[in-house]
Design goal:
Number of helices of chain B: 10
Distance between the termini of chain B: 37 Å
Structural class of chain A: mainly alpha
Oligomer: heterodimer
Largest interface: A-B, 30 and 32 residues
Number of domains of chain A: 1
Radius of gyration of chain A: 20 Å
Number of helices of chain A: 10
Number of strands of chain B: 14
Bound molecules: adenosine-5'-triphosphate, magnesium ion
Helix content of chain B: 25-40%
Mean pLDDT of chain A: 88
Number of domains of chain B: 2
CATH topology of the largest domain in chain B: Rossmann fold
């Protein structure tokens, strides 16, 4: 392994180990398991409730639409967890554990360290997504139609989707270098934006024209769209992306993910530089 | 010759952070208005193999200097080189060679055991497993943490956490180690152990350098090869403890203990008084005074102005200069 690769690997490996220890050890193992299963199922019930309310108000009863919403929301679990996972690293290491300055001055890639710390959150999210999907199929009548031949494209989209999410998370982390601990709003507000603009809850076409353009600029839109195409039976929902075939969507996802990746490096480096200049790398805010 | 640490005209100014929403009347207690000059014109050269001390009162700029050298903070102007690399341009190769511990602070991941905490940091530096394991065991024994090796960090006392952080500093066997008040708040025994270990570590190995800051005069005197006295961001003197003392040996040092004085302003600028410090002891209702005098002639003036305040003199002693006196003669006040 080249020395740069070795440094990134050890940064990732030990950060992931640390993240996992902290995420899984806060309680007894059995309680952790119960929590990990109950939480997504509770989330699924909230969805059912939401759908029922919609159905009563709007008087639509389209099982396809329910499946569309359900799968979108299931995969959205990744968004919240990953963004929170990357965003809270600097905040908690700096303010709570007060280890940030020591980690920061060690010979690792701090960028990769943050990715590693978020990895366990992504793993926990993956479990939650699987449970949610299984629960949907078994208890709520969500119909899946999976073509094994499309598995590679699904996997590629999945990897790119996570890659892009982590990039967005690193952008947030770069910003959080400069901000104090009471800015949790950022980690909660940004997923909210994606929830609305990326066609999670309702198709893109339900939004006004300008909002659809915003949605098309965010790679997550393509990830969610492609994921649904590959998991659900063909339907008549107008997503606004129907004129692209699967490979074109994948290409769009790849291109926009790369842009976000480059952006994450830029924003992260800038945030780091500004914080180092202002003396904020290891600040603690006691308010 | 290359220096382990070198700074040239280092300047660091902290600007008050610009508030997005300015408050109308800034009476609230926030950051002080206006920029703070934490370091000014700091030029030093620390040789490889030296145990170098920074001695200065609160707010002198010691931690600021360490942060710049550790690549945590950028200088406002000037240059700093660690192991020959520029801290601003080339932080990564520096990070491979340094480590830092600051005392009085209790960092660590509470859910991990002490050993896991240290292990993780050793792996950030790529220390081979076998070496790391042997070092951790040895250091835990040295610092009296052996029976806490498998305890969760959240169960440690703050002193134990501080010792754990010392282990973290040494476990990576850095070439250059920064210790910011390493014995702050530790008991006498633990401080002793740390001082001895630090001195032994530098002296028994080749090519190790330590920069240490402290408030404790005795600690600086005992441990350091050279000491820089720093106040208000400026280095006032830099030499061996012996030479620093010799520098004021021609001066006369007097110590007095008197009933509490209401004011000591009359000593300022008194003819023949180079500098002085005064410390009130509230419990005993006394004031301890130390004078650095050019010769003995001002003593009678001093005594009469004390008596004119109606204060009784408990004792008066002429003494050999200590490092503390050197400090008083330069800074104009004592340390503790
Ligand atoms: N992040 C910061 N923002 C604004 N001012 C700062 C910051 N850090 C330090 N200062 C100021 O710089 C000056 C030097 O501080 P520094 O922490 O270096 O002192 P010190 O010598 O380490 O003191 P102590 O003995 O109390 O630890 C102080 O006046 C301090 O208020
Ligand atoms: Mg300090």
């Amino acid at each position: 392994m080249s020395s740069a690769a070795r440094i990134h690997w050890r940064s990732f490996k030990w950060a992931a180990w640390l993240g996992w220890e902290m995420d899984s050890n806060w309680t007894e193992p059995w309680l952790f398991m119960v929590y990990s299963v109950i939480k997504p199922i509770a989330g699924a019930f909230i969805l059912v409730l939401m759908y029922t309310v919609f159905a009563l108000i709007g008087q639509f009863r389209d099982p396809d639409l329910f499946s569309y919403i359900y799968v979108g929301n299931a995969f959205f679990i990744f968004v919240g967890n990953t963004l929170f996972g990357t965003f809270q690293v600097i905040q908690s290491d700096r303010e709570w554990y007060q280890t940030l300055r020591y980690t920061y001055i060690s010979p690792i890639s701090y960028y990769t360290y943050i990715v590693g710390r978020a990895a366990s959150k992504v793993a926990v999210a993956a479990l939650a997504v699987v449970i949610t999907l299984a629960f949907g199929a078994l208890a709520l009548g969500v119909r899946f139609e999976i073509n094994l031949a499309q598995l590679p494209i699904f996997a590629a989209a999945f990897v790119l989707g996570l890659f892009c999410l982590v990039s967005i998370g690193i952008c947030l982390a770069g910003i959080s270098f400069m901000t104090a601990k009471h800015t949790h709003g950022l980690a909660e507000g940004i997923p909210g934006i994606f929830y609305v603009f990326c066609g999670v809850l309702f198709p893109l076409t339900a939004l006004p024209e300008w909002a659809q353009s915003v949605g098309r600029g965010i790679p997550l839109t393509y990830w969610f769209d492609l994921t649904r195409r590959l998991l659900l039976p063909p339907n008549t929902i107008s997503t606004g992306l129907g004129f692209f075939n699967d490979y074109e969507i994948l290409a769009l996802l790849l291109a926009s993910s790369l842009i976000f990746f480059l952006m994450s490096i830029g924003i992260f480096k800038l945030g780091e530089f500004l914080a180092r200049r202002a003396g904020k790398i290891d600040m603690t805010t006691s308010y | 010759m290359d220096f382990a640490i070198e700074t040239k005209d280092l300047l660091r100014i902290f600007k008050p952070s610009r508030k997005l929403f300015k408050r109308k009347n800034p009476n609230g207690n926030g950051a002080p208005e206006g920029p703070v000059t934490a370091l000014e014109n700091v030029t030093t050269q620390i040789r490889e193999g030296e145990l170098f001390g920074l001695l200065g009162p609160n707010g002198a700029g010691k931690t600021t200097l360490i942060k710049i050298l550790c690549t945590l903070l950028l200088p406002t102007a000037g240059h700093a080189y660690v192991a020959g690399y520029d801290v601003a341009k080339d932080p990564f190769p520096i990070r491979e060679k340094i480590n830092m511990v600051s005392g009085g602070e209790t960092s660590g991941y509470g859910l991990l055991t002490t050993r896991e905490n240290i292990w993780m940091f050793s792996q950030f530096y790529g220390v081979p497993s076998k070496v790391a394991k042997a070092r951790i065991d040895e250091l835990f024994k040295t610092f009296g943490l052996w029976d806490k090796r498998d305890a969760k960090v959240r169960t440690l006392s703050s002193g134990q956490r501080q010792k754990m952080n010392m282990v973290r500093g040494f476990v990576t066997d850095p070439e250059i180690l920064f210790l910011d008040e390493p014995t702050l708040g530790l008991d006498v025994n633990a401080s002793r152990v740390i001082r001895d270990y630090v001195m032994g570590w530098v002296r028994r190995q080749k090519g190790k350098t330590i920069l240490l800051t402290t408030h404790y005069m005795m600690e600086a005197d005992e441990m350091c090869d050279r000491i820089a006295i720093i106040d208000h961001g400026r280095i006032l003197a830099c030499d061996t403890p012996e030479n620093l003392r010799r520098g004021i040996r021609k001066d006369t040092t007097f110590r007095l203990e008197v009933d509490t004085l209401k004011s000591t302003s009359m000593f300022t600028g008194m003819r023949g008084v180079k500098n002085f410090s005064a410390k009130n002891d509230i419990a005993n209702n006394t004031t301890s005074l130390t004078f650095i005098l050019e010769d003995e002639s001002p003593v009678s003036d001093i005594l009469s102005s004390i008596q004119s305040q109606g204060s009784k003199i408990h004792y008066l002693q002429k003494s050999e200069p200590t490092l503390e006196d050197v400090f008083i003669s330069m800074v104009g006040r004592g340390l503790e």
